[in-house]
Every structure is written in C-alpha cells, then in structure tokens.
C-alpha cells in the first residue's frame, strides 16, 4: 500500500502544492484543509487532470452545464442527470441506462454504435469520481430545493472546475478562458445558460469568491496560538500560491477593460490591491505579523 506521506512528498517534489478540498454545493464555497486528498498517483486523477488541461475551452461551459436525460420513458422525459457524453457525437443527452436502449442521440439523431465504447465521462463528474471535486458538490447529494435553481448550479459547477485548475497549477487555463472564450466575439450561444457562463463577469465573481474563502482560511490560521500557527506554514505557502494565481487572472481581466473608466475596472483594481495585501500577510505569517493587521486586510475585502 502506498504511504500517503510519500505521495504528499512526491507531489511537492513535482511542484504541486497539496490542495485543500473545495466544497461548494450551490452556496458559498469553503476551502478547508482536508486529510482526504486526491491520490495523484492514481490513473483516475491523472486522466481527469489531462482532460482538464487539454479541453477545448469553449467546451468548458458545456461540461459544467447541468444536463438531463432526454430519452422518453412511459411517454415522458427520463430527466436523470447526464454524467456521460456519447462518443459518437459528444452530446450529453442520455443517462448511462438510457444510452444502452437508445439507438440514436435525441439531439442530433446520429446513430449510437452498438459495439465499442459508447460513452465517456463528462469532465465535472470525472473530477468528482477521482476526488478532485468533493462528492458533496454532486447534485445527487443536494437537497431538492437546491436543484430548483439550475443557473446557480451551473455557475457553481464551472467554479468547481476553476478551483481544480487553481489547485493544480493550471491557472493559465482560466486566463485563456477569459481571452479565448469570454472576449471572443464569435463565442456566442443561443442557450441562455451557456451564454451566461461565457461572460467574463462569471470569472471576476469566481476571483472575488475564492479570495474571500482564502481570507476566511487565513483568519482561522491567525486565530491560533503562535506555536500552532507555525505548524501551518505549508498551508500559508499554499494560500500564497493561490493568491498569486488569482492575481494573474485579475491582470488578464483588467486588460479587457483597458482605457475604460467603468465600475468593473475599479472593482477589479480594488480586488487586486486587497489580494496583494493578503499575499503579504500570508507570507509574513511565520514572522508573527500582528492579528490586528490581518483583520485590516479582511475588512478591506470588496
């Protein structure tokens, strides 16, 4: 059996900071240090990260969107959550059970092969099954009331994919999502959910939400006694790396508003300033920076 400590050391040697778990089930996301980390030596985790790193960014919205099975059962739609796409056409249109009894895709009518690989997992569910996203994020574990607000769920799922990118040194993916998708005038959709996910405001809100989560985690560290705080030095380093990643995304977002005096630009600049303060605070943690100074950073959070 592989020693978890050896896995952690190997991940650090490879330049990967051991991530905290991201729990986000339709409400405010909370980052917290978790003893249950993904097994980065497992094939499932490696394939999920490869899928994320190589995905056509315009498809990221489709991967995040909640889809329900469109097959007909007893004169009504099946309606189950769709966790796979058809390999024949790449549409997320059928649940795994209905894909076994249907001959064609209900969206494009392309025949489904009777032999070979008929399905491949959608990226979001691939991340869940591999442990990169908490299973508490899965709709199957949510209350029915939460599932009623589908747009919120779609946004939270995209946020979860951004979280995985941030946790695994793939921040450039989010930056390219802004430049290659959000700012691409040809990247349009008649689907209102996809159209909303294509807006750069969604990325800006992810930055603000993630920054506030990091601030909350830093506040928890700074409430500890000095000796116990010193044992969290690796966590402080990880949070600092995350702050740098968010800052990089904000720089790209700011460039999209250049020569503008809009409130959006002012909001981005203020957030960037507060991230710089928080980064300085996290890096100064081992030096015993007074808690009062940290609280100032917290209350400056936009």
Automatic annotation (TrEMBL):
Coiled coil: none annotated. One of its GO terms (biological process) is protein ubiquitination. GO terms for molecular function: ubiquitin-protein transferase activity. InterPro entries: HOS1, Znf_RING/FYVE/PHD. Residues 1-21 are annotated as: Disordered. This is RING-type domain-containing protein. It comes from Salix viminalis.
């Amino acid at each position: 059996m592989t020693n978890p400590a050896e896995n952690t050391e190997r991940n650090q040697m490879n330049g990967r900071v051991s991530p905290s778990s991201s729990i986000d089930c339709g409400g405010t996301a909370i980052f917290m240090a978790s003893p249950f980390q993904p097994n980065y030596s497992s094939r499932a985790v490696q394939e999920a990260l490869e899928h994320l790193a190589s995905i056509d960014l315009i498809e990221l919205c489709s991967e995040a969107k909640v889809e329900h099975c469109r097959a007909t059962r007893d004169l009504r739609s099946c309606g189950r959550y769709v966790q796979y796409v058809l390999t024949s056409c790449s549409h997320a249109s059928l649940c795994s059970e209905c894909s076994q009894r249907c001959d064609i895709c209900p969206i494009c009518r392309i025949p489904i092969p009777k032999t070979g690989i008929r399905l491949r997992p959608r990226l979001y569910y691939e991340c869940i099954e591999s442990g990169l996203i908490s299973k508490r994020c899965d709709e199957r574990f949510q209350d029915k009331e939460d599932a009623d607000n589908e747009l919120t769920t779609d946004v939270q799922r995209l946020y979860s994919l951004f979280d995985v990118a941030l946790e695994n040194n793939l921040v450039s993916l989010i930056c390219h999502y802004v430049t290659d998708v959000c700012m691409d005038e040809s990247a349009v959709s008649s689907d209102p959910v996809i159209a909303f996910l294509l807006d750069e405001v969604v990325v800006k809100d992810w930055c603000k939400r993630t920054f506030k989560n990091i601030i909350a985690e830093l506040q928890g560290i700074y409430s500890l006694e000095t000796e116990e705080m010193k044992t969290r030095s690796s966590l402080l380093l990880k949070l600092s790396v995350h702050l740098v990643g968010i800052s990089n995304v904000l720089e790209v977002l700011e460039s999209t508003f250049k020569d503008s005096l809009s409130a959006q630009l002012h909001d981005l600049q203020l957030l960037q300033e507060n991230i710089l303060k928080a980064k300085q605070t996290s890096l100064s943690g081992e030096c015993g920076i007074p808690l009062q100074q940290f609280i100032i950073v917290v209350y400056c959070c936009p």
